[in-house]
């Protein structure tokens, strides 16, 4: 093979193989450590692909689309900016699909390149399904996120795109424990490389002195360094403290001169929130980076680090993946036991040092309190001292998620959807979860048994077979049988009981009746037959006719009014089914909102949105990430339409990027409120949330 040169750089052997695979239009999974130039190669390939197909773009611009997906908004923005010059020279359109950016069908359909996050692109696929046929290349970077909660969205995207044989799919991941299984599942070519192009020394050290002193001691000859902390407040406090200790350090340039001498950029920066303590830290060559900063400020901080003006950059997970910065050392601080920190994520963070294009060597340091040192050494390394990578396991089969997934699939379908078992299974049997657990399913003699998952109406299973089915599902989930003990039983009517069950010193409350089954181990409305319910059914088999009168995902959606049976074995979405799917609101949440309207005849938007803030999972995550209170969140939403964004940002120490995202959420629920008003036949004139001042006492009463 002839040597390939890109951007005046000769490629390594592994990179040659990747580029050759790309050019053959093969689907592939690239599994290699960080800093092997995976994203760089993909972007070079995309530029070549567009250049070679430029005439097609000019003649039919909507018929050629390339999609690049990333886990974080910060990475998507960085890669969007990195392609901006190329797209401008070629006079082709590029679209940024991230939170805060509104989706306009015409703009999305005309874009030749879409750069975005997993979730935003999933919305696009469902809102504008015709886009699928024109996607020529799909790239999913940081593919190991498949093994985390957000992996459900990645699998959903793949299930839609993989059906189009004309789409080339390229998956990029740092080292994972089971790349062969993943490649076999997808029937993709596996390109695996275990050696970093830039060597990385991995170290674990206990925090002997204070954290500040330990950082200075370990990093004094290894600047610049990126330090990762678990929360916004820790990141900011550490940056401020480090800056205070650097009394004799000054910037090479004045802060005003660091705006790349651009009047336009300087003007832009004046219109975003730039915290004073961050400016002071920068004067001592220290900075921090987290999702609470404006997008522009984060990009500016990255540019400062790239230019060599920053020695210490303290960050949350916003810099843990994708963004390429020239750090000689990457430090992850663990001051308490963090059970959910995955091995792959830890190595991903430590791999931020010694980057391709910047250094010849890097150091990844885990700074940890002495009490957890031995545990993490055993967790991260084998007996020979080699890193132990986690295997990716599918998150797709989450019963509550599948309820929303099937509603969206049915609601956005142009024709009634068949609920014949083969048709329903076809929508999920290409998932990694189904592939990984196929042996468990082979235990069942017939596909008919899977009606226990979907619908009781067309199933002839007796209660023992239903219970057995769900026990096999638990085995597939890796849920081990537990010793359960009945503590109490209370009868509330014919077939209606309330139980308290003890499992491993933890109590669970279970309600079993003719109308519904509920258990405190699962979501409020779930129809899943959990182990506690199965325990009771076995204990009281004579109650099976009351308690197993319904089961399955489709049953639940029909019983709760989201679907309706049409002719034959088919279903259609109802009005509330379409609304729930249209706004991408989980049916459980939608039932809660319907309950608000049915029990509050004169409900106004202010009261409704107060409940939304307490209920919406994305808002709750944002509140936690930005270290706000619920009262503060309500006040911010109230001020969105009446106050200057910079005033709000300064008052609550939040970014204008968060305000953009929250403004989008606010608009969504405003529209939903009007739709529900119509549905309930109420007066549809919306009372603006900002029209009336919300008193703290009133908010707390609602809380």
TrEMBL record:
Query: Where do the TM regions start and end?
Result: none
Q: Which residues form a coiled coil?
A: none
| UniProt keyword list | ATP-binding, Helicase, Hydrolase, Nucleotide-binding
* UniProt keyword annotation of Hydrolase present: yes
Q: Which SMART domains match?
A: DEXDc (SM00487), HELICc (SM00490)
The UniProt record lists the Helicase ATP-binding domain at 7-205
- What are the GO MF terms of this UniProt record? ATP binding; catalytic activity, acting on DNA; helicase activity; hydrolase activity; nucleic acid binding; zinc ion binding
Query: Helicase C-terminal domain: which residues?
Result: 276-357
Protein origin, superkingdom: Archaea
What's this protein's name?
DEAD/DEAH box helicase
Q: Which organism is it from?
A: Candidatus Heimdallarchaeum endolithica
Q: Which PANTHER family match?
A: DNA POLYMERASE THETA, PUTATIVE (AFU_ORTHOLOGUE AFUA_1G05260)-RELATED (PTHR47961), DNA-DIRECTED DNA POLYMERASE (PTHR47961:SF6)
């Amino acid at each position: 093979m002839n040597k390939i040169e890109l951007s005046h750089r000769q490629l390594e052997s592994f990179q040659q193989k990747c580029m050759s695979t790309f050019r053959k239009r093969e689907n592939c999974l690239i599994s290699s450590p960080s800093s092997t130039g995976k994203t760089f190669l993909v972007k070079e390939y995309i530029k070549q692909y567009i250049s070679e197909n430029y005439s097609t773009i000019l003649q039919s611009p909507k018929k050629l689309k390339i999609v690049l997906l990333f886990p974080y908004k910060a990475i998507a923005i960085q890669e969007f900016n990195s392609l901006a010059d190329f797209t401008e020279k070629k006079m082709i359109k590029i679209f940024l699909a991230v939170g805060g950016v509104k989706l306009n069908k015409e703009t999305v359909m005309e874009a030749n390149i879409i750069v975005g996050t997993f979730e935003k692109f999933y919305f696009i696929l469902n809102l504008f399904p015709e886009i699928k046929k024109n996607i020529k290349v799909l790239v999913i970077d940081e593919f190991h996120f498949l093994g985390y909660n957000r992996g459900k969205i990645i699998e959903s995207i793949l299930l839609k795109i993989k059906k189009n044989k004309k789409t080339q799919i390229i998956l990029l991941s740092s080292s994972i424990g089971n790349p062969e299984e993943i490649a076999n599942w997808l029937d993709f070519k596996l390109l695996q490389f275990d050696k970093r192009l830039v060597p990385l020394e991995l170290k674990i050290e206990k925090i002997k002195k204070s954290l500040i002193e330990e950082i200075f001691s370990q990093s004094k000859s290894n600047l610049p360094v990126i330090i990762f902390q678990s929360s916004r407040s820790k990141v900011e406090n550490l940056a401020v403290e480090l800056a205070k200790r650097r009394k004799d350090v000054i910037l090479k340039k004045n802060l005003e001169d660091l705006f790349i001498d651009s009047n336009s950029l300087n003007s832009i920066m004046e219109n975003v929130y730039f915290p004073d303590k961050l400016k002071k830290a920068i004067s001592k060559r220290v900075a921090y980076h987290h999702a609470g900063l404006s997008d522009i400020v984060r990009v500016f901080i990255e540019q400062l680090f790239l230019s060599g003006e920053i020695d210490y950059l303290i960050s949350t997970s916003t810099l843990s993946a994708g963004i390429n910065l020239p750090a000689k050392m990457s430090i992850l601080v663990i001051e308490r036991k963090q059970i959910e920190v995955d091995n792959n994520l830890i190595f991903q963070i430590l791999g931020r040092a010694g980057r391709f294009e910047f250094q010849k060597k890097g150091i990844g340091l885990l700074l940890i309190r002495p009490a957890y040192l031995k545990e993490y050494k055993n967790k991260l390394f084998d007996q020979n001292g080699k890193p132990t990578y986690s295997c990716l396991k599918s998150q797709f089969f989450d019963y509550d998620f599948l309820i929303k997934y099937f509603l969206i699939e049915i609601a956005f379908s142009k024709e009634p959807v068949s609920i014949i078992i083969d048709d329903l299974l076809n929508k999920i049997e290409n998932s990694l979860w189904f592939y990984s657990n196929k042996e468990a399913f082979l235990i069942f003699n017939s596909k008919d048994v899977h009606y226990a998952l979907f619908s009781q109406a067309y199933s002839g299973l007796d209660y023992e077979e239903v219970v057995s089915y769900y026990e096999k599902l638990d085995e597939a989930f890796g849920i081990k049988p537990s010793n359960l003990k009945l503590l109490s039983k209370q009868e509330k009517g014919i077939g209606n009981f309330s139980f308290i069950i003890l499992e491993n010193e933890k109590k669970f409350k279970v309600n079993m009746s003719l109308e519904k089954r509920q258990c405190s181990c699962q979501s409020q409305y779930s129809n899943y037959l959990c182990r506690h319910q199965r325990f009771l059914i076995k204990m009281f088999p004579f109650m099976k006719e009351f308690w197993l009168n319904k089961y399955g995902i489709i049953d639940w959606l029909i019983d709760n009014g989201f679907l309706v049976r049409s002719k034959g074995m088919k279903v259609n979405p109802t009005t509330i089914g379409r609304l729930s799917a249209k706004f991408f609101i989980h049916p459980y949440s939608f039932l809660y909102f319907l309950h608000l309207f049915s029990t509050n005849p004169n409900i106004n938007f202010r009261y409704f949105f107060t409940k939304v803030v307490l209920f919406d999972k994305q808002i709750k995550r944002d509140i936690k990430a930005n270290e706000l209170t619920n009262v503060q969140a309500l006040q911010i939403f109230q001020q969105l339409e009446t106050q200057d964004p910079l005033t709000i940002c300064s008052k609550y120490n939040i970014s204008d990027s968060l305000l953009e995202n929250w403004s989008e959420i606010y608009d969504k629920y405003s529209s939903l409120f009007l739709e529900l008003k119509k549905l309930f036949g109420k007066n549809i004139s919306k009372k603006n949330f900002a029209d009336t001042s919300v008193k703290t006492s009133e908010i707390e009463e609602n809380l």
